[in-house]
Amino acid sequence: MSRFLLAVLILACVGSAIGVVHARHRHRLLFVELSRLEKARDELNIEFGRLQLEQATVAESNRIDQVARLRLGMKFPEAGDVVVIRP
């Protein structure tokens, strides 16, 4: 009976050790994945900032163009209105 109990305890100990090794390996894999996703998030945040800046720039130039056309009556010159002066 004691040998049977000893065998069960040894098997339980080995099973527990295998479970710990498996859990630590899974933790490492998930940590690597987390690090990769954080890096991708940071890159996306940088890109988002760039796009916001570009949008603000485009919106500003469009607003200036609109004001110049409506309030000041400005327009692009026609091809015949352009004079090229050569040295």
Brief synopsis:
It is built from one helix and no strands.
Characterization of the model:
The protein is mainly alpha-helical and 87 residues long. The chain has one helix at residues 2-70. It is rod-shaped, with a radius of gyration of 35 Å.
Mean pLDDT: 92
User: What is the count of DSSP helices, taking H or I runs of 4+ residues?
Assistant: 1
- Bin the strand percentage: under 5%
Cα distance spanning the termini: 112 Å
Which ranges are low-confidence, i.e. pLDDT below 50, for 5 or more consecutive residues? none
Helix content: over 70%
User: Structural class of the helix and strand makeup?
Assistant: mainly alpha
The coarse overall form would be rod-shaped
SSE topology string: H
* DSSP, total strands: 0
* Biggest beta sheet summary: none
Q: Rg, please? A: 35 Å
Write out key terms for the chains shown.
about 90 residues, mainly alpha, 1 helix
List the helices and strands and how they pair.
Blueprint: H1 2-70
Pfam families: FtsL
Family: Belongs to the FtsL family.
Subcellular location: Cell inner membrane; Cell membrane
